[in-house]
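Explain the record.
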Amino acid sequence: MRPLAEQTILITGATDGLGRELARAVAAAGATVLVHGRDEARGRETVAQIVGQTGNPYVHWLRADLASLDEVRGLADQVIAEYEELDALVNNAGVGTRVPGDGTRMESRDGYELRFAVNYLAGYLLTRRLLALLERSAPARIVNVSSAGQAAIDFDDAMLERHYDGIKAYGQSKLAQVMFTFDLAAQLDASAVTANCLHPGTFMPTKIVRGAGVDPITPLEEGVDATFRLVAEPSLDGVSGRYFSGLAEARADPQAYDPDARCRLRELSQRLAGE
């Protein structure tokens, strides 16, 4: 891998919590950082704070609402148009079990169950759209920020229209990230682009955890360190298709290792995202 000071890194959901602190860490190491979020004012404030704290002027703001697949496509198009290389993509943006909606079922702008749409489908589409740029920038890395809170996907009711539960919705979306990571790694040349995913920490003090009314357990710094490692650790060159819990490799939900389930998810994703 190239030194971080020579890399361009896109982090989604980078205006709060883990994403913001990860953006600060890679900026401090000298990388060009693309800070994504959906709130214009918060985004520009985040960029200004990171530039001021790190002295790195190469921190840029990109706005898109990941609850809209059209805006996801627009985000990818903007990155392709404005940047000649992309060395790492960190799919971190997400919504929790209760916020927004206070536990009620919500839909994305495209009419899909919101947790599945934002936590998984947006990252799936963004990655697919940026894959050629990542390959041209090789060696490059894709990091999907998942969770140990996984739930097997019910493909007969993937949008949970019949039996909705916020914890189930969140768990399905997080397992889908892992399944996509495994599928993607199998398709890619690991010497050019790697794809890994992780559970950064248990109930870190983030907006998602506070919104669920849960007491934090893992310090945010530990989650940042675990995620930063997948982005920047030289010893992970060529390591792909792995799921980590913190710093250690771990086992995901059994459905992640089922080729038929991964095929069904791939077909569902292609149909919902239109590619």
Summary: Helices lie at 17-28, 40-54, 69-82, 114-136, 166-187, 207-211, 220-232, 259-273.
